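Section: Multi-chain targets

For targets with more than one molecule, the full set of components is provided together so that the structure can be written out for the assembly as a whole rather than chain by chain. Components appear in the order listed by the source. The example entry contains four components.
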Amino acid sequence: MIETTAAATDADPVQACPIAPVVDLVFSRWTTPILWTLNEYGRQRFVELQRRIGVITPKVLTQRLRQLERDGLITREYFAEVPPRVEYDISPLGRSLAPLFHSLAEWSPNLAKVEAARIHFDTTQPPNRRP
Amino acid sequence: MIETTAAATDADPVQACPIAPVVDLVFSRWTTPILWTLNEYGRQRFVELQRRIGVITPKVLTQRLRQLERDGLITREYFAEVPPRVEYDISPLGRSLAPLFHSLAEWSPNLAKVEAARIHFDTTQPPNRRP
DNA sequence: CCGTATCCGGTTCGATACTG
DNA sequence: CAGTATCGAACCGGATACGG
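Its structure, encoded as tokens over all components, is:
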């Protein structure tokens, strides 16, 4: 590596957490719903995505779709019709994330424990300082 | 379900992406490095975490630690010594995320493909509009 | 050592309006 | 239909300083 000091080595975020790059890639804002929807419902066009995701504005949806296309996780196909039609789909690389989504879905029942932990924390730990 | 209109059903973000709550919980900013470090290096104190993670400020680290403690993913133990000592550790619930982290680590070799896709995109797709 | 308090700058998001 | 342009606002997150 270029950095020579031990401090720099310790301070390297990737060193501290090797999975951080993957997280940034896959779990950035809006990327999860987009990939999930494409993986679950298959190839679809812009407005379908927008309606299924629910609240996202066209601007932000476009931004995220471009990003995911650039990263090779989704594909975009343009049809020069009137009215114009664009179809998005998940790519093979994007589909390779499916097991990951499956793991996440499998863990989701534990959310009940999280909710219980929050209630416990809020009822036992006062908002002010704690020893 | 309680919602009766189809529009509301379609617009429900959780409906659109059931794993979104888990993602928000586990992959919020800084939570991944914190959980990873605790899971990898075991019980440690505040400054150790701070040095391993690298660049995080005490304020933000405290915020995220509190959040994770409240969610039941980590534990905090205070020792009334001089100087005071605090030790954090991953909880059983937090440790149940380990397979997830493992899946992420397994996927990380694909980052090379992402990098290649970006280069391809940047060299073939002009910055201006595309059909 | 382990935080908390305050200020402040930058990203990012949403709302809105408009084009091909 | 599928975006793009512009604007304003909110939300972190970092720097700094201080307290138990």
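Confidence is low (pLDDT under 50) at residues 1-11 of chain A.
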